[in-house]
Design a protein that fits this description.
- A hairpin with a 4-residue loop joins strand 10 and strand 11.
- 30% of the residues lie in helices and 29% in strands.
- By secondary structure, the chain is α+β, with helices and mostly antiparallel strands.
Length: 325
């Protein structure tokens, strides 16, 4: 494979992408919330990395093009600030892109692309403008997803897309990019929603010149095809005027809620640590939170610190004060 180039995605670019896609999942935007997940830090939107790779490919091609199909496997998440290297190979009309972060493959993109257009490339006219403000992701369980369906509007922000993906937004049809944006909004905001991990995307596009593809403002509809609670996997069908396919995602475990001081106090003697002065470094979550509550329940003179997450630290302190008042 040939090295196509590399890129990094900064926290500001993730925020810009969130506004362009309407995927405001805190895993990508809130460092304090993300640290409570199994990843421990904010991740890039997988689809943002996919379009960044397409951007490098379109920069190389340098002509107007259209996607005929795209299949992406998200094998490993990437963090903001990581350098992602992109490798490309084209064989018999199929292009394969592989993304590597610190030597580990994190995405495999297989696509068919037509760069010999005979029609005018559709722009963003007719697509909904991106609204201001942030939406809140839905919190679902895998059991509640059976039979679920819905739709999202195809949104477009020309300025943001040109800033984030100058070559892709210049050379690819806006409705096709808007469908990719809508797919991450579905996964990150609606189904699975808050506790989601994007696993795979498989789309086939209608030719832009056809009558059905001309309805660029038609929403992207989704419906749940299957769920597998054994591995927290969910598969959805995607359907719009311009494309149809499937998406696979996983539910990630929600953040662990530590036991309350009231519960811990029943297991610790009132004066078990009454002669101790304790300083807990990192007492706002995890093991530090539990140790702080145990010491406080046992009567220790306690001080806890935190590096980030003032709200979490205040919650721990309020639980201690309320239980021991």
């Amino acid at each position: 494979m040939n090295r196509l180039g590399s890129f990094t995605i900064t926290p500001q670019e993730s925020l810009d992408f969130a506004h362009a896609s309407r995927d405001f999942n805190p895993l990508h935007l809130d460092a304090v919330a993300a640290r409570r997940t199994r990843f421990g830090q904010t991740l890039i939107h997988g689809v943002c990395g996919t379009i960044k790779a397409l951007d490098l490919l379109l920069e190389k091609i340098g002509t107007e093009a259209e996607l005929l199909s795209i299949r992406v496997k998200y094998s490993k998440p990437a963090t903001q600030g990581q350098t992602l290297e992109v490798f490309e190979q084209t064989t018999q009309g199929m292009t394969r892109l592989e993304l590597f972060a610190d030597g580990t493959r994190c995405q495999v993109i297989e696509l068919e692309i037509n760069n010999a257009l005979t029609s005018v490339r559709p722009n963003g006219d007719g697509l909904a403008a991106c609204t201001a403000g942030r939406d809140t992701p839905v919190e679902l369980s895998i059991e509640s997803c059976n039979g679920l369906s819905g739709e999202v509007a195809l949104c477009w922000d020309e300025a943001l897309m040109h800033t984030l993906f100058p070559s892709a937004s210049r050379h690819l049809p806006a409705p096709q990019l808007a469908i990719l944006l809508a797919s991450t909004r579905i996964v990150g905001m609606q189904c699975p929603g808050l506790h989601s991990v994007f696993a795979q995307l498989d789309l086939r596009f209608c030719a832009p010149g056809t009558e059905v593809a001309a309805r660029a403002d038609a929403p992207l509809q989704y419906r749940v095809l299957s769920t597998d609670p054994r591995i927290d996997r969910i598969e959805l069908a995607l359907d719009s005027a311009a494309a149809r396919g499937t998406v696979e995602a996983f539910f990630r475990p929600p953040p662990v809620q530590q036991a309350s001081v009231k519960h811990i106090a029943a297991l610790v003697g009132n004066d078990e640590f009454s002669t101790q002065n304790a300083l807990v470094i990192g007492g706002s979550r995890g093991l530090g939170e539990v140790i702080s509550k145990v010491l406080a329940a046992g009567g220790a003179n306690l001080m806890l610190t935190y590096a980030a997450g003032r709200e979490d630290a205040d919650t721990v302190a309020a639980d201690i004060e309320g239980a021991l008042a």
